[in-house]
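pasting Zinc finger CGNR domain-containing protein for the record, 208 residues
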Amino acid sequence: MSWKASARHGVREAPGGFALVQELLNTRAAMSYGPDLLGVVEDAQWWVTDALTTWSRASGLPAPTLLLAASDLRSLRRLRSAFEQVVLAGSNQEPPGSLPPADVPVSLAPDAAGWVRVVPTGRGIRWLASALWAEALLAQQAGAWPRLKLCHNAICRAAFFDTSRNNSGVWHDVSTCGNTANLRAFRERRRLLGHSEEIEVGPGPDYH
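structre below
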């Protein structure tokens, strides 16, 4: 099993540390071929260790070693749902509503070149939440946030980074979710057409 959540879907990954947000979103069960990586502690521990190692390498910032307990799984799933709401609101896939507050601290620190960096702070899951919201903020400032999307296939919802020129992608994979949706629409059109024909060729009025 791959503990890298996004790799299970074969999607293009978001750049740099922003990929951590995409990783969290892709911990959801991958349709019929992968479990929810936040379902049990062992899976979640493997995932978070791998994800933070990759994030640290991409961001150039140190990441703590998070040792998860069963009580942390609910917090992780709640955090995942919060990011799903924010992504869906940004792509207009769901009507606007009340979005969850982040309520996490971050630190601002100048680096060796004099640039101010956003540095996650806190302990345990709160540190992870701090890192995730910081990456979301940085992605919005860089203009990359609108390209992180959830697949329009409701039973898939894989998070993918849209690299199309006009940012028009809606499926994580056109050959799977896209074709499935097109086939479903085609069958529905044929069903409606057949229903219309049945009405048109029905018996005429009875004059007796």
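The longest helix spans residues 174-200.
The chain is about 45% helix and 10% strand.
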